TrEMBL record:
InterPro entries cross-referenced by the UniProt entry: P-loop_NTPase, Sulfotransferase_dom
Residue ranges constituting the Sulfotransferase domain according to the UniProt record: 74-334
Name under which the protein is recorded: Sulfotransferase
Gene3D superfamilies (alphabetical): P-loop containing nucleotide triphosphate hydrolases
A Pfam family: Sulfotransfer_1
Length: 346
């Protein structure tokens, strides 16, 4: 789409689109929105800064409902991430690990197939909020209950005592997260909104204006808690998992309370789970090519490339320098780092 088209949408038109997007929100949420800073959105007309993070209006309503009604249990497991950082993959891996006694990874001689072969991971592990409300928790009898969320750590309201709740946070290097988000959100934008150019999107990303951003604040919230409470919060990196899936799955299984036995390791169960949940295997399944498991999002959009380092095909040297400086400024003091320099030589 020509850049002139991208930049000439009027504020009035954007406001009209926002009115249509937000017409089904509660009066309470609409009242809150009036008091919040807002910027142009990626897939919606606007993003609003709520509790320190940029969110879509419907996400704010969902977070408000979650904070009001959710009652955590000691055995709960929460899979957290900023969008486009490996959420679908982590749901699949965690489900397979936790349920491997009930659902053998390899199809048995009776023809019983693993649920991940016929269900999208988002159907098996619900978000803590969905369609502007938290899921029907009363219907989830099995423990541990396993949920996923993009909500920043501080907004989960789990402190001062997390007891035995387990949180797994997966993050991805910000370069790849940006490119994945740009592709993904341009496919999902509201009718009437133009595509966002790579340059415009990059500026917004560096300013922190992206869903549940700033990305550095989101990462640091969980990173710092993982250092303070390693028994409660496990911090994993997408890039490291792609490089060495076996040791990371062992770490994940132990943390979740479902460690692999020596016999399972000999039988290759870890490798079987890795293959079952691999990007290549999940992408070719019919269930992941068709239908919608998250409201308004076609399953096929959840699987693009899943590669590490794809950003080198998109970002200019000046963009790489700018984002590198932001990461250095925001993350260096915390000890959180990413191996992106090695990808520059590709």
């Amino acid at each position: 789409m020509p850049s002139s088209t991208i930049t000439t949408i009027t504020h009035f038109t954007r406001t009209q689109i926002a009115d249509e997007e937000e017409k089904h929100l509660s009066s309470e949420c609409k009242e809150v929105l009036l008091s919040l800073p807002k910027e142009r959105g990626w897939r919606t007309a606007f993003l609003y800064k709520f509790q320190g993070y940029w969110c879509q209006a419907k996400e704010i309503q969902a977070i408000m409902a979650f904070q009001k009604h959710f009652k955590a249990k000691d055995t709960d497991i929460i899979l957290a991430s900023i969008p486009k950082s490996g959420t679908t993959w982590m749901k699949a891996l965690s489900f397979a690990i936790i349920n491997r006694k009930n659902f053998p990874i390899i199809s048995d001689h009776h023809g019983h197939h693993h649920p991940l072969l016929t269900s999208n991971p988002h159907d098996l592990v619900p978000f803590l909020y969905a369609n502007n409300q938290i899921p029907e928790l009363s219907q989830i009898a099995d423990e541990p209950r396993v949920f996923a969320t993009h909500i920043p750590f501080a907004s989960l309201n789990l402190l001062p005592s997390m007891n035995n709740i387990k949180i797994v946070y997966i993050c991805r290097n910000p370069f790849d997260t940006f490119i994945s988000s740009w592709h993904f959100l341009n496919k999902l934008r509201s009718q009437g909104l133009p595509e966002i150019s790579l340059e415009e999107a990059f500026k917004m990303y560096c300013d922190g204006v992206i869903g549940f951003g700033p990305f550095w604040e989101h990462m640091l919230g969980y990173w710092n808690e993982s250092l303070k409470r390693p028994n409660n919060v496990l911090f994993l990196k997408y890039d490291d998992m792609k490089q060495d899936i076996v040791s990371n799955l062992k770490k994940l299984a132990s943390f979740l309370g479902f460690p692999f036995s020596p016999e399972e390791e000999k039988q290759g169960v870890i490798q079987d789970i890795a293959k079952l949940c691999s990007f290549e295997e999940m992408k070719k399944l019919d269930v992941n090519k068709n239908g919608k498991s998250i409201k308004d999002i076609e399953n096929k959009y959840l699987f693009r490339k899943g590669e590490v380092g794809d950003w080198v095909n998109y970002l200019s040297p000046s963009m790489v320098k700018q984002l590198s400086l932001i990461m250095e400024e925001k993350l260096d003091a915390s000890g959180l780092s990413f191996k992106v320099a090695s990808q520059l030589g590709k």
